[in-house]
């Protein structure tokens, strides 16, 4: 799996960043460019079936973790720092548990290792109801989504998945595979192994994705994990509180063990 990526900086230890469901590497462009590349050589990756990475019929955490391990080895990165948000956080956890020798420090943003109830079914159905090739502008697609997705901010996030070749619009992501494997995306991280290295779990103070009840399971799998709460941030911590998140992450990456 030849994952698409963008690279920021040079000469520092490698940091791989994994986006969440329906996202892409560009979700982390600002933080990668303004904060993280000062302490790491950043590789912001599109996960399979997302962004400009290849499409495949398989979409589960063991497969996505294998993609990350292959990426690290293909680019001869050695041991890397690994950061993931939401779905990407579960991929990062699975990678650290299955391939601990390639992960130096682990950062998980607003997700726990457990299974979650479906939260995005209506969004996925709304996207499936839109054939972007039938529209001649991004604004027209936005208007078509508005009835089912009233939040302007959420629509702008979803519309980042649009591609335009000069003649027609298409979805970059493999929407059919994402819908078919939505249960796999909501599933728990495989209950195998432990990651003994430094781990940082960051949660939004206004988010319910990571609760105090998740702490025992996190520490069982990641015994050296610390949990930090960023007040005023929701699930999209990097969008709601980018400066606070940058400070927490860069402190963790530059801290002596």
Report on this model:
This protein has 257 residues and is of the alpha/beta class. The protein folds into two domains: 5-115 and 187-254, Rossmann fold; 121-180, no CATH class. 36% of the residues lie in helices and 18% in strands. The chain contains eleven helices and nine strands. A seven-stranded mixed sheet has the order 1-3-2-4-5-8-9, with helices on both faces. A two-stranded antiparallel ribbon has the order 6-7. Helix 5 (138-146) packs across helix 6 (152-159). The longest helix is centred in the first third of the chain and has 14 residues, at 61-74. The two termini are 33 Å apart. The mean pLDDT is 96.
Largest sheet at a glance?
7 strands, mixed
User: For this structure, what is the CATH class of the largest domain?
Assistant: Alpha Beta
The helix-and-strand class reads alpha/beta
Proportion of residues in extended strands: 15-25%
Low-confidence stretches: none
Summed up, the helix count is: 11
Strand order of the largest sheet: 1-3-2-4-5-8-9
- Please give the number of β-strands: 9
SSE order, one letter for each helix or strand: EEHEHEHEHHHEEHHEHEHH
Q: What is the terminal separation in angstroms?
A: 33 Å
Mean pLDDT: 96
